[in-house]
Amino acid sequence: MSNTPASTEILAEIIAPGPAPLPHAVKRFGAESCGDALVDELISRCDPPHIDTPVDLHLALTTPDQGLDYHVRFTDEAVEVIRQEPESPWARFELTLGGLADLLFGDPPTAAAADWEHVGLNKPTPERPPQEQRSMRSSMRANHALLAALTGRPPSLESLAGLHDTDKWGLVHWYTTHYEQHFRPFADRRARVLEIGIGGYADPESGGGSLRMWQRYFRRGTVYGLDIYEKRLDIPRVHTVRGDQGDPEFMRSLGERVGPLDIVIDDGSHLPEHVLTSFRALFPHLRDGGIYVIEDLEPSYWPGWGGQPPGTADATTGIGFLKTLIDGLNHREFDGEPGWFDRNVRALHFYHNIAFVVKGPNRETGAPEIVRTMPPSWFPEESGGNG
């Protein structure tokens, strides 16, 4: 069984806000297709362990009208699933279709109350011979991996970055700590996330490591990936789009099509012209409270990439443009008519080579004009301030 565009469409229906999304999905797509899509999601969250022998587990789903059986087979650091009952499973996981949806996508109280049962069919005993004991250890590891996918919380972004071979932590970049800090409030929401740049160059089935990381981290979210090349990736709840981030009309239409967005991450070409084009087109399509991230700002200082030396950068570079947003954030402290970005950027956070821009109304008042226009000599020299 493999993920298809239909599976991703079904999951989008199941995680949609509103009353009774699962019954609506079952009515539209059928119980079998909904079961397949939910099992695809479950397997995508499973981190297969190192084991010595193959392990078979039975996932038994029930619906009001039928039962659905899945054979989950673990091999060394791999897992696959087919729609059939296994002959000799080591354990059986019994769930209703709604219970599986609640475990995967419900809020914490709903997930905790989900109805499911685990039945051990081949329990360990001290009398087993050594070879069988080794097989038992493999079975327990596989069993624990599926249990963790079913009931556990997402691993840290550092762990996910290593698991999915992204460059966002541990080599050149150290971004995941900052992502954890700013993205934690979104982790359990139905967040809509867009990342520019999928990776893998022209190979349609290569890249997507960070998309897999975001798919695991935002367990109820929908993730979009944009790349200049066509991509065909087998990841539940992930949609790939082909397009040029340097094309302002395309980027505006993309924002209209996939927005409103909660998070945008620009890990694309890193060319300053493209960075600015993407920001201007997509930032308006963020929800208030949403975050726009620009990675790899170092080309702002590299002349060969369109950058300029420190102290000379103008608004045509990423760093130079972000400095204008800092001015806009404080526009009430000087004369001039504020622009749209001045009124709608609420905060900026900078770290090495990465910036987080928070969207929201910039309504804080400034200093009174009399204070702004008074010379420093007006204030007492030994003033202790206003506390």
Automatic annotation (TrEMBL):
Residues 20-110 form the Methyltransferase MycE N-terminal domain. GO terms for biological process: antibiotic biosynthetic process; methylation. It holds the Pfam family MycE_N. It comes from the Bacteria. Keywords: Antibiotic biosynthesis, Methyltransferase, S-adenosyl-L-methionine, Transferase. GO terms for molecular function: methyltransferase activity. Residues 118-138 are annotated as: Disordered. Pathway: Antibiotic biosynthesis. Residues 118-135 have a biased composition (Basic and acidic residues). InterPro entries: MycE_N (IPR040800), SAM-dependent_MTases_sf (IPR029063). This is Demethylmacrocin O-methyltransferase.
